[in-house]
Amino acid sequence: MKSHILLTFLLFSAGVCQAQILSPAKWTYSTSVQSAKVGDEIELIFKATIDKDWYLYSSEFPCEDPMKTTFNLVPHASFKLVGAVVPINPIDKYDEIFECEVKIFKKTGEFRQKIKILATPLNLFGESEYQVCTDLTGQCVPAGDDFRFNVDVVGSGTVREEPAAPNPFAVDTVKKSQSSTFLESENKGPILDPTLVKEDPKGKSLLGFLLIAFLAGLAALITPCVFPMIPMTVSFFTGRGTKFQALMYGFFIILIYTLIGAALAPLMGPETANHLSTEWIPNLIFFLVFIIFGLSFLGLFEITLPGSLINKVDQQAEKGGLVGVFFMAFTLVLVSFSCTGPIVGSLLVSSAGGEFLKPIAGMFAFALAFAIPFTLFAFFPNWLKSLPKSGGWLNTVKVVLGFIEIALAFKFLSIADQAFHWGILDREINIAIWIVIVVLIGLYLMKAFRLPGDTGKDAEDKTISVFRISLAMIVFVFAVYLVPGMWGAPLKALAGYLPPLQTHDFNILKDESAGALCDEPKYEDFLHLPHGLRGYFDYDQALACARQQNKPLFIDFTGHGCTNCREMEANVWSDPQVLQRLKENFVVVALYVDDKTELPETAWYTSTYDNKVKKTIGKQNSDLQITNLNNNAQPFYVLVGKDERVLVSPYGYNLSAESFSKFLDAGKDKFKELYP
Fold first, then answer.
1. Would you kindly state where each structural domain of the chain is located, as residue ranges?
2. Are 64 and 563 in contact (CB under 8 A)?
3. Mean pLDDT over the full length of the chain
4. pTM score, two decimals?
5. What does the alpha-carbon distance between residue 116 and residue 159 come to, in Å, rounded to a whole number?
6. Which fold has domain 32-196?
7. What's the rounded Cα separation, in Å, for the pair 440 and 305?
8. 653-663, pLDDT tens digit by residue?
């Protein structure tokens, strides 16, 4: 078993006595029916009661870093799983540290797993893993719980199940402690909340999405399929239509697009959205869809609806009255499809976030922006004189949108690549693709080359307007901003669209000489320290090095899914004074309490705290913290000496770099006092 720091903790209990074992979530377990018979399908219900001001991460969301809730059900011949575990109505939350959306539960949480009873007796038991956090103190608590279900199975017998065909794309789950998870997801981490959506500063909320949808509607107006139709439509109303009909025309445009969103809304529910967000097949499909849309805008081909359909709808528009106005609006939607289709399609893909109203609201916002100009120009036809004439500039807008569609397509390929560790789209490859695309946009705006849709006098004229030059300058500046990312610059503004920094192979910002080590750290191939720090990920190895170098040991109890750990690293550890102290005065060890890597059986041990066998890196590190420090929250920083004596009171979540520096200095001074 790992070495302990218990003697030291007792000597300095005054500084640590305030620590406590936190249990912010309490679980109950039940089934959908009290009794069943062999062959029936029933639901296992997992319910959590969550303390005030705490939240529990859900079981499934696109963000990979936070620790998600999982349930390990011990396999048995008496049942089989039917589908995956289903979280019931989690709420969305934007994680500012990981710069992604997660799903969480507040106050109460519920998960359901469907099973089929195959035989008696029915054996349903296992263990769960989860994480709860609070924004009040910045603490996160990873934990686990044993569960057992009791169901009265009427009668006896067995159900013969045909073996399932092997899945050639299945993830290898052999090394999973001989237990089967409800959710075979390798994305380790937690989830988030829509009650905070209105305060979301990054625009990832519903309000932000509506703004994007509205701007997309405005962009659709200045495409070659739509812009020329504004004067054509307005001339109809000024000739024989009324102001009321013009108003209804705009209303019908909004209604048609909103109905499209309503028809697709049931397909965008939480279960489907989670599947679309994390599975590789849907993300590859989205990637191809965006590429096809982008190539269409570049002029490789045109996406159009059948002419017979458009003609039939146009004939209905001749009937007059409100029916005719409706079909005029419908005709506009159909005729403009080759330009609006890719924009609307991209919008609907982006709305797959688990909210029923999101696609409806998004289509409403898009249609509102799309319909307002038609309605206003019908009311005030004299405004038409101020509109620029149709020409090559419309195709320029279309081409730029096409390049943007292609750039955004790689976000979906990146999700699949990260989830299954294909390694085909590391961060620098993605950034290189973006740089090339952005430079091509700039060159196109400068008329350095032409595409198939560029015809007429505008295409032949090499004169470049001041407006185009201004846009090109903005585009080239953005390209220059991207370049440092090739060498490891964080590019925080694009964090939600680029693969994480740990996938970056060529990073000159890493300082490999920072912190001399005694030997090669265990687990360094998949665990990392920030800001170029070099250290360890195994307590015994780090303690031995600290003794050899005659330095205090800095213990960082952290986690992959600990949002506030990342915040401390980004805002406190990055401070030059703090970073210098960590590099020069301490041996650093990061102990991940939620890492799932299973250790060799010879390294397993039974905890004296809960009498459970600890098999993984995370379980052993968590047990070390709980058993010796009576604490299970992260972030949690401890300074110890040669004899494992706690030098000063441990330090928790506090974003003051000055206070953290004082904590480090106090530990260093105490070390010198005890070990002159």
1. 32-196, 205-390, 392-505, 539-674
2. no
3. 75
4. 0.46
5. 9
6. Immunoglobulin-like (2.60.40)
7. 30
8. 888 999 999 99
